[in-house]
DNA sequence: AGGTATAAATAAGTTATACTTATTCCAGTG
DNA sequence: CACTGGAATAAGTATAACTTATTTATACCT
């Protein structure tokens, strides 16, 4: 014998009305149904909750105690329902976004706009490199990821939404910086500053070099885009980066873009989530927002 | 479709184990039974509570929210059960006692002893005259009443437990105070201080006078035993009171007892409760205590 | 790739539970 | 003393909560 919410509901009505019949009416039930529920509740707690003296129904002390708990339980059920309904809307809840580090340069802009549209959504932004991001996906940590082309192996529902041109950068005073249509083989003697393995940009670069059967004479490996940019600025060597990461530096002419034949390497950004994941309305809204924003940007 | 406690129970187990199968084992159920309960809960809140990605089961945000409420609800159920069990014992709960005003003189002694035996019982003592007491019984306010002989009309389960001798008192310097075996008719010229109507002592007195075909020449009506005693002490007249109310004054010889023929009027005290009332274990214990204490006193 | 193991979903059938209607019982009331 | 209002009881029915058997899906393992 165990307590049920129905019993508590019926009990609460009887306690309020102090009448089985009126409680039954209120609940659109018959009077015997109410009697049964109360009797079951009483037998499962092992005490009388009501006593009938003459015609009137009184609550026992046990009844009063039970009523207090019944009320709080029902109140919690109510608020649970309310909070669930909240979550059904787009303008609430939590949105966990993980982005590959390169994406960060425009993800913040994207998020700023989205936050303005849906101010009460609580957003978590997690910036890591591609490899760590795949691990996080494994743990179902992010709702939505923004990254380069996802690997085939992983079960990811991903759509591309934006160009991601990879370009080669150098110090503005580099000897080739004014040249046009440079062939890769001209760079054989150059040192390349490259991202850590596990980075999407690194993978894209390697594939490009493989295709062109090119192998740089020297590479220096570094973690993070900022570090790479600073190294190139310092004259440590050349680097391949997403154009999004260096817009500012190019404009200020602190870095210059080399006009390599076959470049920019045209890649795309993807918005994705684990296949089978039940996206919350908020997450769906964000996904759609990213896709729309991508095409808008492309047109502009 | 409505939420049930069973659903919350099963949900909580799955949320903790993050596995339907293990939750089923824990609850001694089969796995499909768990699936069904979760599905029903999900459909009644209109949101997925879990999502299955690959083999692993994850909680959704809705699930996390629901879990918080489920836990508090189950905690309340638990404490409700505990408190109910408490009430099943003799040493807890509340005990509402109502006594006729005359009873008060020994009820306090009785309660003191009972409280020492059951210290954590919360006792309410309500002292009123017989008439008001019957009204309170009507409203099921007291658990137990101590009073003189209850009227036949009312549905009261009452047992007598102690003698209640009514005696006549006078000022010690009253002319009859040294006399023996006084006949009522000798008191025709006396003034009587009598309790208000509705008092048990008053009723008993009137019946006694009727039987003896005696009618006092003058009566002064007063409320409460204390007032009566003081009035007699002040020489206002004679009075009939329960011996229990004047023990102290007789011992100190501030009042004296007249030796009237046919007195003391031998009445009894009763411990009672409304017929059909479900006495709590505490109330039952008190009732028994009063009965035992009464006979003990009689023997002593 | 293909086979295997693990875990959840689905289907069908059974038992228990939550209701109903009809009736009885009980206490207060004219 | 019949009458009325209100709860209890009885019997029957629909729904919910389970079971077993089976299917489906995915990770794992050569």
UniProtKB/TrEMBL annotation, chains A, B:
Residues 3-60 form the HTH lysR-type domain. Keywords: DNA-binding, Transcription, Transcription regulation. One of its GO terms (molecular function) is transcription cis-regulatory region binding. Pfam families: HTH_1, LysR_substrate. PANTHER family: HTH-TYPE TRANSCRIPTIONAL ACTIVATOR CMPR, HTH-TYPE TRANSCRIPTIONAL REGULATOR. Belongs to the LysR transcriptional regulatory family. This is HTH lysR-type domain-containing protein. It comes from marine metagenome. The lineage of its organism: unclassified sequences, metagenomes, ecological metagenomes.
